[in-house]
Amino acid sequence: MGIPFLRCCGPLLALALSAAAPAPPWNAASRPPQAAAADGEMESAAAKWARGARQEAVSELAAAAARGGSPERWRTLARWYFETHRLEQSLATLDRLGADPDRLRGRLLVKLLRYEEGLSLLGRETEAELLARLEALEALGRFEDWPAELQAGARLLGPQHPELLRRQGRLDLEAGRLEAAIDAFRRCLAQDPTQAPALFGLGQALLRAGQEAEGLAKLAEHRALIPLLDELEFARRSLDLAPNHGPNWASLGDVQRRLGQAGAALDCYARALSLSGPEDRAAIVLRAARVEEEDLARPLDALARLEAEWGLHGDLRVLVRASDVAARAGKPERALELLELALARRPSDAALLERRAKLRPPTPPPR
């Protein structure tokens, strides 16, 4: 009886035993070639994104996704589009996925001025979502909803967050609480002087409170600030596209300086120098030295920076500026020494010879 049983049931028994047996260890080499290629494309695009080649990374990932993208790949592409300000493309990419698990869609819709739709999707769990909600409510004129949003914001961000303070000031101003509005606007601007709505609101509140001179001055500051904020937005967008491009950081530093943010400007120049080659360094160092000398009244720091850069890369522009700074800092001997080094490189340069004539003490007449 045993043999017939094995003949008729043996194949079924073997199939059952093989199904119950543990699977062999996972091996990347056993994956389908298409899946391995897709992983390689994703890794290549991610590496380019990480090193700052963002437009190239987006193009590569978009091409790879079009050939057959997983949901995760499409989500990454939507986020990259969003972070490089290609909003319509980001939204179209999300539409491929149906429900958006990370609520990026709500923020996108607000940026695309589709405020009601965006509000319906936004929560209050993150700073980005909460600020998007406030932006949408402000655009829709739904100020009656602000108090609840500001309370949620205070729990999440702290009550002194500048975005919350300037909106609290707006509520106080609309309600005629002028002293409270002035206080909220001032506290907002103390943290973030680029808050144009707070500056405008402060001017309005001061005028209504009878403080005409300061109110008019604040409104004039507001008018001067608006074009600088346009420049700031352009510089930040350039950084979003190429965050590891040194000259982009230098451009942001230039705008920060014009906004009166000397410390922030120096931070930007330092970042720019860390990312720049010798061909770009001199121009950036000259700008940083100008901030130290003119804005922060630290001429000796500027001189030290310029001399160090001269020692590293030998750019004649840096050496001449170092001589000028030394002269203005009351160090004429050092200024002359530096200028002689420059003249050794360009002995016939008329501008350098004129500088030397001004630095040299006059020769006493013969007796």
| C-alpha termini separation | 141 Å
Helix content range of the residues, please?
Answer: over 70%
Report on the biggest sheet. none
What is the structural class? mainly alpha
- What shape does the CA trace take? flat
What does this structure look like?
The structure is a single chain. This protein is mainly α. It has 20 helices and no strands. Helix 2 packs antiparallel against helix 3, helix 3 packs antiparallel against helix 4 and helix 4 packs antiparallel against helix 5. The longest helix has 30 residues. It is flat, with a radius of gyration of 32 Å. The termini are far apart. The N terminus is likely disordered.
Features:
single chain; 367 residues; mainly alpha; 20 helices; disordered N terminus
Question: How does the SSE layout of this entry go?
Answer:
Blueprint: H1 2-20, H2 33-50, H3 54-66, H4 71-83, H5 87-95, H6 104-111, H7 115-121, H8 127-140, H9 146-157, H10 162-174, H11 178-191, H12 196-208, H13 212-241, H14 246-258, H15 262-275, H16 278-295, H17 299-313, H18 316-328, H19 332-345, H20 350-359
